Amino acid sequence: MTTITTSHSIVSGPPPPVIKAAKNATHGHHRKLSIDYYAKTCPEVEKLVASVTSEQFKAAPAIASATIRLFFHDCFGCDASILISSKLGSKELAERDASQNKNLPIEAFEGINKAKALVEGKCLGVVSCTDILTISTRDYVHLAGGPYYEVKKGKWDGKISKASRVPSNIPHTNATVDELLKLFNSKGLNMEDLVVLSGAHTIGYSHCKYIINRIYNYKGTKQPQPNIDPKLLQALRMYCPHHGGNEDIVVPFDVTTPYTFDHAYYGNLEKNMGILITDQALYLDPRTKPIVQSLSKDKQKFFKAFAQAMEKMGNIHLKRGRKHGEMRKDCSSHM
Ligand code: HEM
């Protein structure tokens, strides 16, 4: 059993319960992923990253939701390829410049680069950007009030970052549950993972453009989607006028506890107070509804399931070793 001596100090009070990583390790001849992968080569890695994440969170807590989303968008091919900047003059844009990734706040990228620079200063060329992104994301989940879970390390960075690969890999805001399931299944994630991971919308914001159709012209009916809680609808329409609104306005995903990583997201869905079509769909669909109901009743159940699903998502398209991956010194450019 591994003991964790990592970023517990980043929050005051007694150490939180640690959610243990699953035992199954990866196969092949490369070193297996493990919690203490860097025990010899960079034993301080989690502490170094924590010093950056805790400082960033204190200065601007919105970095938490921004980084969790960054991790999600990277993870449908989890290899830090989203951190690569497009090359000047190159014909093909990098993943981060795809329209689906345009709203990812710059601060989230900068936070990862900062942590990487600190780690490089102590352990040159040893720790991958993917591992730093995974550790940082876990720190932010925890700093925002969510579970503290162990992170298995030893992933390498991807060599390919192409904007053209993004559209088919990131869910649309008006996707049906069938479409979401198809995408998640194609990544090895199941229906429960879909519902559990969507619970990340317990913090963070959505720009109005993602909900305009839902609140004014659902499926071309010139009416809002039926069933939206009337008070929520009114509030959303105040923030997001049909025409001429400020493009930068955002609305919180979790209308009850917007800044805390908790399970209120599921309770909101039960009250028809989901924000995106895809959020509310999880309660409207009879297949996913029971999962929503069980998570809304039990915060610890959600926390445990979330930690496990994040690990599972983090292993999608896993790269290990020089043949498939690289170990970038600067997360934003190839070696
Ligand atoms: C299931 C399908 C999903 C859809 C359609 C979806 C869509 C969106 C959209 C449209 C936004 C608003 C972005 C903006 O306006 O800047 C957003 C934000 C966010 N998403 Fe998702 N998302 C999904 C699943 C997930 C998953 C699986 C995670 C993580 C595990 C996640 C984490 C987040 C977070 C934390 C934010 C807030 C970002 C911020 O405040 O900066 N989402 N999502």
UniProtKB/TrEMBL annotation:
Q: Does the keyword Acyltransferase apply?
A: no
Q: Which InterPro entries match?
A: Haem_peroxidase (IPR002016), Haem_peroxidase_sf (IPR010255), Peroxidase_pln (IPR000823), Peroxidases_AS (IPR019794), Peroxidases_heam-ligand_BS (IPR019793), Secretory_peroxidase (IPR033905)
Spell out the reaction equation it catalyses.
Answer: 2 a phenolic donor + H2O2 = 2 a phenolic radical donor + 2 H2O
Q: Which residues bind Ca(2+) 1?
A: D74, G77, D79, S81, E95
For this protein, the record's PROSITE patterns field holds: PEROXIDASE_1, PEROXIDASE_2, PEROXIDASE_4
Statement: the UniProt record of this protein carries the keyword Repeat: no
Q: Where does Ca(2+) 2 bind?
A: T202, D254, T257, D262
Which residues take part in binding heme b?
H201
Q: Which GO terms describe its biological process?
A: hydrogen peroxide catabolic process; response to oxidative stress
State the needed cofactors, names only. Answer: heme b; Ca(2+)
User: What is the disulfide pattern of this chain?
Assistant: C42-C123, C75-C78, C129-C331, C208-C240
Q: Where is this site: Transition state stabilizer?
A: R69
Q: Where is the Plant heme peroxidase family profile domain?
A: 32-335
Give start-end of the signal peptide: none
What does the note under cofactor report? Binds 1 heme b (iron(II)-protoporphyrin IX) group per subunit. Binds 2 calcium ions per subunit.
UniProt GO molecular function: heme binding; lactoperoxidase activity; metal ion binding
Q: Which residues form a coiled coil?
A: none
User: Might you give the EC number(s) for this enzyme?
Assistant: 1.11.1.7
The UniProt keyword set, sorted, is: Calcium, Disulfide bond, Heme, Hydrogen peroxide, Iron, Metal-binding, Oxidoreductase, Peroxidase, Secreted
Q: Which residues bind substrate?
A: P171
**Which subcellular locations apply to this protein?**
Secreted
State the family named in the UniProt similarity comment for this chain. Answer: Belongs to the peroxidase family. Ascorbate peroxidase subfamily.
| Function noted in UniProt | Removal of H(2)O(2), oxidation of toxic reductants, biosynthesis and degradation of lignin, suberization, auxin catabolism, response to environmental stresses such as wounding, pathogen attack and oxidative stress. These functions might be dependent on each isozyme/isoform in each plant tissue.
Give the protein's recorded name: Peroxidase
* Species: Chenopodium quinoa (Quinoa)
